[in-house]
Amino acid sequence: MRHYYVLNQDPQSARVFEFIQAHRLDHTVHINRTRFWVPEPSIILTECMLRFSACVHLVDPNLDLATGLPKEYPSGY
Q: Is domain 2-58 classified as CATH 3.30.70?
């Protein structure tokens, strides 16, 4: 599964929400963004990227989801 997000203020977010619901994708809604998981490889992933690649972003597994900082940030920061 690939982990993606869309910012809730993005003009295309309503269409992404409809896509998530239509394909019954697991998702979590937060104040600023909605995260969701897409199976890979799949036709759903291809369709998602063709339709929403400008507004849907891959979640970086090396970043802390709460802070956006690298998980293993050097001490002193």
A: yes
